[in-house]
TrEMBL record:
HAMAP family: Rex. This is Redox-sensing transcriptional repressor Rex. One of its GO terms (biological process) is negative regulation of DNA-templated transcription. GO terms for cellular component: cytoplasm. Modulates transcription in response to changes in cellular NADH/NAD(+) redox state.
Amino acid sequence: MKKISDSTISRLSTYYRTLSHLIDQGIETVSSEQIAEINNITSAQVRKDLSFFGSFGKRGLGYNTRDLRDQIANILGLSKKWNVALVGVGNIGRALIDYAEFKKQGFHIKALFDNDPKKVGQEIGGLKIHHMDSVCNVVKEEKIEIAIIAVPAKVAQSVVDSLVKCGVKAFLNFAPITIKAPDDVMVKNENMSIELEALSYFLTQNEKGD
Ligand SMILES: NC(=O)c1ccc[n+]([C@@H]2O[C@H](COP(=O)([O-])OP(=O)(O)OC[C@H]3O[C@@H](n4cnc5c(N)ncnc54)[C@H](O)[C@@H]3O)[C@@H](O)[C@H]2O)c1
């Protein structure tokens, strides 16, 4: 299959949400123009993104919202349940454990890790916090496929390395560093500071233009 860009994958997630909202409103069919308008992009972009994966909808009739949502869910692998581990049960970690939406989307937090002796052994949301010493055993037992990294930056690389050694191949990293990983491992970075800097740049350039 052709290599699909990150931006196409990210737009598919957006279309998935758009279709879910339309279905909630009882709307059965939608055109690429409507999907485009809702998301401030062009209809050509919507058609191009979908064309990578086959032909959907009927010319002139648009797409059936449920069919298209289900097909996008299949493409994104959302029809299955993913077992997730969270490493670092601090401020960010706790907020993520409490976020019920992940579970609804098929991402089930099944294991918690921390190296603080005061936290290890405690239970949060029905899950025991394990020490990193037992990481591979727990990863194997809980069939962990994705790990969320919410530890301080200075230890994030070594934490990822430990999980890679246990066979985990997908990471969502909250620590503000660039993680190095083998080619068959994917690391997505979640960094609010970068987003804030983009806003800062936008406001700074606007001021200069005034
Ligand atoms: N992505 C963002 O937008 C964003 C925003 C704020 C903070 N952060 C980053 O997220 C991370 C977590 O922030 P926080 O405020 O929750 O920190 P925190 O100090 O509250 O929590 C970190 C947790 O990691 C644990 N930990 C430390 N070393 C560990 C190790 N080697 N193995 C396992 N657990 C370990 C600590 O015991 C603690 O429970 C930091 O890297 C921070 O810079 C990201």
